[in-house]
Specification:
mainly alpha
Length: about 170
């Protein structure tokens, strides 16, 4: 089952890397694009990719945790399941709740967000929801990082199950 562990480790790392890369892309796009409205469109589409990939990867990782082996630490197994569930949930809530809600607010504003006064109730609600969505992404990234650590540190089987027994090879 080492292969399955490596597979889960790779998927967790891929999503975590994509989420980290998204943060740098979002910051860069807002400094390079001619308008914040255009930059927001690019960031929204990129965030959708991160969220949908997080949903897919999270579900795959969650299903893979049910393919267990003997001698697994039950605490680490359930920790991995919980953290993977948190990752999947944060991606789902971000994509299907916050993104929709922010789009609805932008539509209600009827003009680019930067042109709406800061004291406007819609702008205040938009800014608050945006901040919550950032915290939600951060929570998903922390869960993915902790799941990565748990997956990397889980031990499968015993030394007897190892294809290479170093103790036999290096006896004096």
């Amino acid at each position: 089952m080492k292969f399955l562990s490596d597979f889960r480790l790779l998927f967790a790392a891929l999503w975590l890397g994509a989420a980290c890369f998204f943060i740098f892309v979002a910051r860069t796009v807002f400094t390079v694009m001619p308008s914040h409205e255009m930059a927001g469109t690019v960031v929204n589409r990129t965030l959708a990719l991160v969220n949908f990939s997080g949903l897919a990867i999270g579900l795959i990782l969650l299903i893979a945790t049910f393919i267990t082996t003997r001698n697994t630490n039950i605490f680490l197994l359930w920790s991995e399941r919980f953290l993977t569930f948190v990752l999947t949930l944060t991606c789902a809530v971000s994509q299907f709740v916050f993104s929709w809600w922010l789009l609805s607010l932008r539509t209600q504003m009827g003009r680019p967000v930067d042109e709406v006064p800061l004291e406007d109730p819609l702008r205040i609600q938009f800014d608050n929801l945006h901040e919550y969505s950032v915290w939600l992404l951060l929570a998903g990234m922390i869960a993915a990082f902790l799941a990565f650590i748990v997956i990397a540190n889980r031990k499968f089987g015993t030394a007897k199950d190892s294809p290479i027994d170093f103790q036999k090879q290096f006896k004096i």
